[in-house]
């Protein structure tokens, strides 16, 4: 199995720059949102998205493409996230003004048989199956913690002054505490990965309706447009991927079927893997 997908991002109607990054390829979908209030959020999101996207295009994105045991794919994702974390550590060492830079990360990887998700932060992953929409990620936010504890109601959560306070992310400090889980996906399922620039302003009922009866390209266009109509007070990024029942894409063709959007498309935002600052 693999993905056919579309990705769209927009700076929004208020922000001066786009700190979101997205990658969509035949074997990986990813959204990263530079954490607001942290230095160089666009560098963090771009560097993490670029590294993980590049890893998914290598000849073997997982150990043994044709016969990877279920438990191996999460191990691969954990190794990739740890590698991204080390890259951010190197980026801060090369330029101390980046201290505090961080990004959310929501990524889904397949080896052709199983699917695994890595998630840290308040970007989200949804699955549309047989007309029903289900959130498969859990928000890592202060407000979600208050909800889980029964200290606030869902109505209060929607207007809480600290609803954007993220409690987990990928940064240049401690090792990321990301959720890495297997997903039950099957052909004809549709995945939506998005930054909070969508979900903070567009409710799930409207998101579901915009995902139905549309191509991935139409769905991403309509979702981003809905966020802008709702005020566009944040960067908004959407990746829509349909699960196809087919062979893995041959490794030499993978780059022709991938797409990057947002901060990751600016080479000035990428940390040099050698730790020498920017890539360009």
Automatic annotation (TrEMBL):
Pfam families: PP2C_2 (PF13672). PROSITE patterns: PPM_2. Keywords: Hydrolase. This is Protein phosphatase. It is an enzyme of class 3 (hydrolase). The keyword Hydrolase applies. The keyword Iron does not apply. InterPro entries: PP2C, PPM-type-like_dom_sf, PPM-type_phosphatase-like_dom. It comes from Actinopolymorpha rutila. GO terms for molecular function: protein serine/threonine phosphatase activity. Its EC number is 3.1.3.16. Residues 4-243 form the PPM-type phosphatase domain.
